[in-house]
Amino acid sequence: MKKTLIYIIVAAVLVGLAAYKIAGNKEKQTKEVTEVAKQVDKINVNVVTVKRENIDTDYSANGTFLPKQEMEQSSEIAGRIVSVLVKEGSRVSAGQTLAIIKKDAIEVDVSQAQNNLQNAIIDNQRYENAFKTGGVTKQQVDNSRLQLKNAQAALRAQGVRVNDTSIRAGISGMINKKMIEPGTVVSVGSSMFEIVNINSLKLSVLVDESQIGKIQLGQEVPIKVNVLPEDSFSGRITFIAPKSDASLNFPVEIEVQNRGNLKAGMYATAIFKTNNGAETQNMLTVPAEAFVNGVSSGQLFIVQNGTAKLITVTIGKVYGDKVQVLSGLNGGEQVITSGQINLDNGSKINIIK
Fold first, then answer.
1. Which CATH class is domain 103-164?
2. Model confidence over 157-183: pLDDT tens digits?
3. Rounded Cα gap, residues 290 and 322, in angstroms
4. Which parts of the sequence belong to the CusB-like beta-barrel domain (predicted)?
5. DSSP letter, residue 348
């Protein structure tokens, strides 16, 4: 009997402990659910603190260097190359002889043209003398004069052909490519040499339409060359296209004097100075992404006592992804930069760290 009573008491204690534990767990779960419910009511957002800063508004554009002049020297007559006087890498001056085409057959034609001219001179003299005595008609004299002019023109034409057997450089520069060797047979228009002038180079870049109005012809532009990071270069704007391409970019060319270490085809960056510096110092800015329905609306949310407050500010200039604020903010406010689509004025928020 006594043992049974002990069992009953132990069982009662265990039941009591179990009931107490269940009640405690229920209270803990209730608190957790309440806390989660509070968090669900809040909208997650990212924020930035408004501050004053100096804005770098220099505009950069990438491009490649092009020769100021380049040409493919071609043959003006057909024939066989008998000698090549330059090699790839040779510096040449305009008018310098680069190669010679065989001219034996042309010289034979020159001799024939000279003989024809001599005969035309003799015939014309005879007709001129006969005309003075009435021995020939005016028409016969005119024909002899015409024959003389034709013979003179034919000799000059052969002289041009002889001159064309010497292939002369059309521009000063460097032989970049040689396409012929002695013995090569060329036809009229055959490419023989590629000549490039890199005493000065053109840096060709594309400038966005938002920046094109801030640059002008003759403006000095600092240039950075990727493969020559220790050297500094500058050039002068010589061309601004009057029409943009399909992407609303304007081709711009910058002439750079070559100190000897630049090559055509090198990749470089032009840095356009688009302001005087004073107007972009110590200005109040916010990210462009903070604005509701675009920057032009001037509306954004700030954090106020754990809620989102919608305000309207007066904006100034836009500098890339930063927007100048003229009034409406003093600095130090927390501006919401993401999650605005889910916000209303007064919405509870949870700031994501």
1. mainly alpha
2. 888 888 888 899 999 999 999 999 999
3. 10
4. 204-274
5. B
pLDDT digits (tens, 9 = 90+) for 102-124: 887 777 787 888 888 898 899 88
Cα–Cα distance measured from residue 33 to residue 287, given in angstroms and rounded to the nearest whole number: 37
CA 102 centroid distance within chain? 46
Measure the CA–CA gap between 54 and 280, rounded to whole angstroms.
6
- Looking at domain 61-65+198-278, which CATH architecture does it have? Beta Barrel (2.40)
CA distance 227 to 216: 28
- Beta-bridge mates of residue 256: 201
Domain positions in the chain: 44-55+280-351, 61-65+198-278, 103-164
Give the pLDDT of residue 37.
40
Element housing 7 (H / E): helix 2-40
**Segment holding 127, helix H or strand E:** helix 104-132
Residue type, 12: A
3-state secondary structure of 281: coil
**Cα-to-chain-centroid distance, residue 319:** 21
Ranges of beta strands (E only) in 170-289 are 173-178, 185-186, 191-208, 220-225, 233-240, 249-257, 267-272, 283-287
Contact present, 298 and 315 (Cβ < 8 Å)? yes
Least confident of 109-113, 123-127, 280-284, 292-296: 280-284
Give the CATH fold of the 44-55+280-351 domain. 2.40.420
Whole-structure pTM value: 0.55
Token pair of 173, please?
Answer: 């520069």
User: Which residues have a Cβ under 8 Å from the Cβ of 297 and sit 6 or more positions away?
Assistant: 291
Q: What does the alpha-carbon distance between residue 188 and residue 192 come to, in Å, rounded to a whole number?
A: 11
End-to-end alpha-carbon separation of the chain, Å?
67
Question: Which of 10-14, 78-82, 159-163, 273-277 holds the top average pLDDT?
Answer: 78-82
From the list 267, 342, 271, the residue with the least C-alpha distance to 301 is 342
- The conformational region for residue 293 under phi > 0 = left, psi -120 to 50 = alpha, else beta, is left
